Amino acid sequence: MTLALHGGDPVRTASWPIWPQPxxxxxxxxxxxxxSGRWSISGPYRGADTRERTxxxxxxxxxxxxxxVPAASGTAALMIALxxxxxxxxxxxxxxxxxxxxxxxxxxxxxxxxxxxxxxxDTLCLDPAAAEAAITPxxxxxxxxxxxxxxxxxxxxxALARRHDLTLIxxxxxxxxxxxxxxxxxxxxxAGAFSMxxxxxxxxxxxxxxxxxxxxxxxxxxxxxxxxxxxxxQPPPLNEMELVTTGTVMGSxxxxxxxxxxxxxxxxxxxxxxxxxxxxQAAALEKSLADLGFATQRTSEGTERRTYFGFVIRLPEEFxxxxxxxxxxxxxxxxxxxxxxxxxxxxxxxxYRPDSRRxxxxxxxxxxxxxxxxxxxxxxxxxxxxxxxxxxSALLGERSDVDDIAAAxxxxxxxxxxxx
Length: 420
Ligand SMILES: *Cc1c(COP(=O)(O)O)cnc(C)c1O
What we know:
By secondary structure, the chain is an alpha/beta fold. It has a domain at 26-269: Aspartate Aminotransferase, domain 2. The protein is built from twelve helices and 15 strands. The chain has helices spanning 26-36, 51-63, 74-84, 102-109, 128-133, 154-163, 215-224, 258-291, 324-335, 364-370, 378-385, 399-414; strands at residues 67-71, 92-96, 113-117, 139-145, 167-171, 179-180, 183-184, 191-195, 208-212, 229-230, 244-245, 303-305, 310-314, 339-341, 387-391. The longest helix has 34 residues, at 258-291. Bound molecules: pyridoxal-5'-phosphate (PLP).
């Protein structure tokens, strides 16, 4: 047998489930918005709650918290959460060494300084001891990320934030519906931010939301995402503009459209069932892979429900010296499924380039603090180099899909020498 990458027969050529999968009622919901005369929260009252407001209520309920502020993207949600918490110019925010670039670029976007701390090599989430070591007198906040299929060590991180009087913000962009000791991801800090981007487990193409238990914080986030305006408790007369102007805070327009909100209402109804299906498939795959000598991503103690945004496989030590990108390409070729190395450490990522934008050029002192070359993250870099991942949609098909994935990994292990 030869690797498919080198011209051999692949393990599988059949197609995989596509993503996103529209809920059956999504088309009708979108058509209703089209005809409604209200395509944005910044529009006239038409005699009913906006879809945006309805989704906010349902998503807050889903998470067991008081308030939800929808936003145009996960990036926008992180930015309104940071700014509503009072994070700004020159403040240091501790972020994990591995995440999607937006976890750190949003810190820069509010003129604060991301300080990278190492991740735990088993969960790929922020290491509490490393976070503690990164605290300085300028530290104001910690952003914790629940990455791929893990929940971060929230017991230790919550205690750490409390001990040092730091704001804890959860980047739950990949963890809609995950549960830690009875609490949903996104409800364990001052605010939680979600992405509803195309790839995410709950999606409307592009969208986001920030949640919090604190009504004052929610109001500030709402104004920050609608140019300083918010929705009133009581609606105005029919066909008059609904948002009220207060002038309390200068915001930006980062609002979610009514089309996106309508889609999210429909898709939210399928989230639990899809999360469950992915978890069942993932458990079967974990077992098969363990038999083949492959470890998979661990999650923190206290995790009661994992959600799988990505399934993560560790390359065993016998792969040392083999480029993870080559290993990923070999598995992809066996399965006709995109398999990739996990995100690189953020400071080493080609997407993280603060020096490429004039807006971050705030003087010599600031330039030195945000210089990505000053961050050394050997643990995160090593972890990034030995884990592969594939998208959660591959867990939404048949049990035999999991067997194919395991077979491809087994073949990779047997032929690793061919990868040089
Ligand atoms: C997707 C993602 C974001 C950003 O969300 P967008 O909707 O793409 O702006 C932030 N953090 C993490 C961990 C993500 O996965």
